[in-house]
């Protein structure tokens, strides 16, 4: 679709002309499905529950109606924030802020971000300017609310982006407390990769009123533009060899390597640097400034490979990532979706390769069944694993547990329990303790007749 055709699609919504100029600056190739469904519904004033795959244009799906509503309001000079976007991570906050500022460039609306890791006093100064649009992580914003530096009394729209991730990170209570500082008549949009998270229903009942549900794509559907592959590994050293071989053979523009722990991400980054690969590391222990520097180097092409913990799985929007490697198998199918969703975006093709050792076999099978996908098995020349899967498998494909051994142990335990016990040996009278030369010998009872 040409830009003129994109203009025609949004023209039907009668958006503010200044907002239309922002859309032109974004040079959208075409409105995505979630944008076509969510924008009119949000402009109609309904609370929304939105589910769509990563890279589907969800951010603009809420930023467009958010900006239109703010521009249509009579804003008194002393009014505080009109629209609040809560996100789980600093990386996602920066992505949303960047897109919001581009969209609002021709309007009088200002957008700012409030996240952890930044100077609190500087953020108070930003909030005193009453930005109309605020992007924030829950923990830091709650601090400002409790100290009176954030004014949400005039809030018109509340957006919970990556709501499932916020619940996973323990922000449920923070989110509910923040909404206590907002007026009850605000409009609420809740976005998530899946609406089947166990905690979303409770939050939805607490915050949304008669919400409209918009689900784009099948539930738990892997991204259609990604090839999902699997490499079996014998042990950690073998995984290291496989990772090095994959990255040294090239064929990618940018690559992401995920580990389940910060220490794993840091170790892998060091390993790759020692083999002269241009690599950096991103995890939760970095300061905000350090994270910015890492992401700038990655975007600018100073490094080709980023080793990351799951902190980067959401909100990381970098073009030309065409390879994602799961050094550790993610802990759930939803985490797998978020990791691999960093590639294959905007109509491009991507590859996701998971390194699986024997202890991860059952987890891999669970993710296959949960997402209804089939990993393409492959091997690398000279590095094929001796491990080819469990010898005995259930109908589900999972490894058969060692019940026989446990039953044998149980039988031995029962036989030991059934064996007759020997009568306890008679205790011999203990001899009185010898006197200590230091004068602190224990006292002994005087025997009768002494």
Architecture overview:
With 450 residues, the protein is α/β, with parallel strands linked by helices. The chain folds into 2 domains: 3-215, P-loop containing nucleotide triphosphate hydrolases (Rossmann fold, 3-Layer(aba) Sandwich), CATH 3.40.50.300; 226-378, P-loop containing nucleotide triphosphate hydrolases (Rossmann fold, 3-Layer(aba) Sandwich). It is 38% helix and 15% strand. The chain has 16 helices and 14 strands. The chain has helices at 3-11, 17-26, 33-43, 58-71, 90-103, 120-128, 138-146, 163-168, 172-179, 200-207, 236-248, 262-274, 288-299, 333-340, 361-371, 403-418, and strands spanning 48-51, 83-86, 111-114, 133-136, 157-160, 187-192, 212-215, 226-232, 254-258, 279-282, 305-308, 321-326, 350-356, 376-378. A 7-stranded parallel β-sheet has the order 3-4-2-5-6-1-7, with helices on both faces. The protein has a 7-stranded parallel β-sheet with strand order 10-11-9-12-13-8-14, sandwiched between helices. The longest helix has 16 residues, at 403-418. The chain starts with a helix and ends in a 32-residue tail after the last helix.
């Amino acid at each position: 679709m040409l830009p003129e055709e994109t203009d025609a699609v949004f023209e039907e919504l009668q958006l503010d002309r200044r907002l239309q100029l922002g859309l032109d600056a974004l040079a959208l190739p075409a409105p995505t499905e979630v944008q076509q469904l969510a924008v009119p519904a949000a402009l109609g004033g309904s609370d929304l529950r939105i589910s769509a795959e990563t890279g589907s244009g969800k951010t603009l799906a809420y930023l467009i109606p958010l900006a239109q509503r703010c521009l249509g309001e009579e804003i008194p000079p002393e009014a505080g924030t009109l629209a609040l976007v809560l996100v789980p991570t600093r990386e996602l906050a920066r992505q949303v802020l960047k897109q919001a500022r581009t969209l609002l460039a021709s309007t009088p609306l200002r957008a700012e971000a409030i996240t952890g890791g930044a100077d609190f006093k500087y953020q108070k100064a930003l909030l005193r300017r009453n930005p109309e649009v605020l992007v924030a992580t829950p923990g830091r914003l709650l601090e400002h609310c409790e100290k009176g530096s954030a004014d949400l009394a005039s809030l018109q729209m509340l957006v919970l982006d990556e709501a499932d991730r916020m619940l996973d990170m323990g922000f449920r209570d923070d989110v509910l407390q923040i909404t206590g500082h907002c007026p009850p008549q605000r409009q609420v949009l809740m976005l998530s990769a899946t609406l089947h998270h166990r905690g979303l229903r409770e939050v939805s009942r607490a915050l949304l009123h008669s919400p409209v549900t918009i689900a784009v794509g099948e539930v738990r559907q892997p991204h259609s533009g990604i090839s999902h592959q699997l490499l079996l590994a014998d042990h950690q050293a073998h995984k290291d060899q496989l990772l090095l071989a994959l990255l040294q053979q090239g064929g990618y523009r940018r690559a992401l390597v995920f580990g389940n722990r910060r220490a794993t991400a840091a170790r892998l980054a060091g390993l790759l640097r020692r083999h002269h690969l241009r690599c950096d590391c991103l995890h939760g222990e970095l300061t905000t400034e350090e994270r910015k520097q890492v992401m700038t180097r990655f975007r600018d092409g100073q490094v080709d490979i980023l080793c990351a913990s799951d902190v980067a799985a959401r909100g990381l929007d970098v073009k030309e990532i065409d390879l994602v490697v799961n050094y550790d198998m993610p802990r759930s199918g939803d985490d797998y979706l978020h990791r691999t969703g960093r590639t294959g975006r905007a109509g491009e093709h991507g590859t996701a390769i998971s390194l699986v050792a024997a202890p991860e076999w059952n987890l891999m099978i669970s993710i296959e069944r949960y997402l209804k996908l089939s990993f393409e098995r492959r091997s690398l020349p000279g590095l094929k694993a001796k491990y080819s899967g469990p010898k005995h498998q259930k109908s589900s494909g999972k490894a058969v547990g060692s019940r026989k051994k446990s039953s044998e142990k149980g039988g031995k335990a029962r036989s030991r329990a059934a064996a007759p016990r020997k009568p306890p040996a008679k205790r011999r009278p203990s001899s009185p303790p010898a006197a200590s030369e230091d004068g602190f010998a224990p006292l002994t009872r005087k025997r009768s007749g002494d």
